[in-house]
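pasting for ref. prot 1 ->
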Amino acid sequence: MGADPGSGAVVVTGAGNGIGAAVAERLRADGYLVVGLDVEPCGFEPSRVADVADIDGHEGLIGSVAAAHGRIWGLVNVAGVFIPEAVADLTVTAYRRQLGVMLDGPVWLARAAGLHMAGQGGGRIVNITSIHGTNSERSALSYDAAKGGLEAATRTLALELGEHGVLVNSVAPGFVRTRMSVVDGRDELETDWFRQGYVESGRLPVRRAAEPREMASVVAFLISPDNTYVSGARIVADGALTVGF
């Protein structure tokens, strides 16, 4: 799958590690000019240090990227953070941080980028959500709310931007081997809880967690000019975890 040389730049948030880094690597291999955004160095250029929760700066950010690199063809919202808290222990700081990074930031960045794309004749937006958008977990109220909200926003963005040639979709991963699988200092994918409860039990039918590059492959199609009609969709990439009971 190759990029259209005239399609323009693709902005990827959370490009410093995990799924974001894998998406950036895949899209660069496909021939796109990728602009990485993260709160830490991305390890490639062009990239910028930016906090997606800083919504007041998004219009200026998109404007400056467009001025530096020409038309923006795509946006992939990947940046995420997970701060586990039981309902009884919920804090305003952690709640707002998670919604800022995974709901407010992506929505306002998609708005700024989407309006730019609409004015340029089209583009693609992909929001990385989660199976948490429809399935919940204890101590994950803020994360669940953010991901569910972003999926709802994805649908509305698709409705309003579609007539301008901007296709908007979400990808909902399940278990993926990234830094976010480390909770309270333990990699949950290396615990008996995961091995016995998901792999050996067959609750996770493919019997393993995903690698970030597998999520990047899904994004690569959705962001490409080859995708001409998929919009408003939620692509669940969870190894069939959530189709059973």
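and prot 2 ->
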Amino acid sequence: MAAHQIIRIPILPFGLVNAHLILSASGCILIDAGLPGSESKVEKVLARHGLTFKDIKLIVITHAHVDHAGSAYALRELSRAPIVAHADDAKHYSRETPMTFCPTGWFGRLFIKTPLMYEPYQGFVPDILLSKNETLDLNRYGIPGTIKHTPGHTAGSISVELPTKDALVGDLVASGILLGGLIRTSHAKSPPFEDDPHTVGLTLQRLLDSGMENFYMGHGGPLEASEVQRHVHALMTKKQGYHAETNG
């Protein structure tokens, strides 16, 4: 086996919603948990690689939107793996505070009128809660790499950075059309919702400056650094302090 494999888990087909596994000879980490009821989809991909839920050593939830955190509680029960997330989204994970959504364009404004983003999921308290700019070394879970705070999409968004110059960034960037995926999956764009596009631009630029070359995301992708850089330029040419349209 190579140093690691990054394997897409199709939560919805055509790259519309993705979770990922990072596999190595000594570790298996799940990045995001998909919509509620996604356990069988995770199980199917694990089985394809000769693994079961019990082989998952860590569950990383990049942010608190339902398509990333929806099955976290159930997958923790099945795997007994700890969940890591960031404190700035903690009240959303526990369902103490409902999510708010900032549309980035016409599709986000339309999509927010559907029930999908407000679909309830089983609340949970992360076992490992990062705060501020705290990082987590993944070597203890068999994967060389680091989890870092990467705000902008939500206040508590986190990403996985690997020494192979691969970054798994949740919804910091998307590709494709509408929600993401389908076609034009090599073309970077903002996801339907984004708390602060300027902060996203700064965060993505930090990842690029650190040498990241391949970006894996929740909708569409993966993307090469040059395309992410083009997207960053578009974000940063917006007026500083610009925020996406707020809802409510």
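The longest strand covers residues 5-12.
The longest helix spans residues 197-209.
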